[in-house]
Design goal:
Blueprint (H helix, E strand, L loop, with lengths): L7 E6 H7 L1 H10 L1 H19 L1 E7 L9 E3 L5 E5 L6 H14 L8 E4 L3 H9 L3 E3 L1 H28 L1 H4 L12 H11 L4
Helix pairs in contact: 1-2, 2-3, 3-6
């Protein structure tokens, strides 16, 4: 899908978020950077899908001599590893600049998630919205809560609607009020 078909493009400075979230920092320190990256990506996959966002998570490769690469775990999320000596900040800023100059490619919203103040000012200058690491964490948690509540809300609605809550083996008629069943029977037999 092209970016404009999503509700928004969310650009995430991966290592900045890992460094700002206590849970991810603890995961990184106890179990390594790879697990912290995976945990962040999994949280963003669910969040992006629920919000209808296309998310690009960017990780610096500035300390590793490797070429830039991409992974696409889902249609809603891609992971970008920058090239040697390129920072995630530079990658994100170039993306924002591209979308601000190319309005046909521009999604309805571009949101940058980082707690880097200098990057915040730069991307806002390109017309993007800014979201701190803490706000992103809250948004993800709120999205998780909504996803968990949706099945319960459907279940509550079906309890209120006797036609939906009727046991399938007995058929929908058995869940009707007896006076309604009688009236339907009369109509069926041509009696008024």
């Amino acid at each position: 899908m092209k970016p404009s078909s999503y509700n928004a493009l969310l650009l995430v400075d991966g290592y900045n978020i890992i460094g700002q979230w206590t849970s991810l920092k603890n995961t990184r320190d106890q179990f390594g950077l790879e697990l912290a990256r995976q945990t962040l990506v999994e949280a963003l996959i669910s969040y992006s899908s629920h919000q209808g966002y296309h998310t690009q998570v960017v990780f610096d490769a500035q300390y590793q001599q490797s070429p830039a690469s991409q992974e696409h775990p889902t249609s809603h999320l891609s992971i970008h590893y920058t090239a040697w000596l390129q920072t995630a900040d530079t990658f994100i800023e170039k993306r924002c600049a591209h979308y601000s100059r190319n309005s046909l490619d521009y999604p309805s919203r571009v949101i940058v998630a980082t707690s880097d103040r200098a990057q915040q000012l730069t991307v806002v200058g390109y017309g993007a919205e800014w979201m701190s690491a803490q706000i992103l964490a809250q948004a993800i948690e709120q999205s998780r809560s909504q996803v968990k509540q949706e099945p319960r809300q459907r279940q509550r609605r079906s309890r209120k609607d006797p036609l939906r809550s009727a046991p399938q083996s007995k058929g929908w008629v058995s869940s009707l009020d007896p006076s309604v069943r009688d009236k339907l029977s009369q109509w069926r037999h041509g009696m008024d």
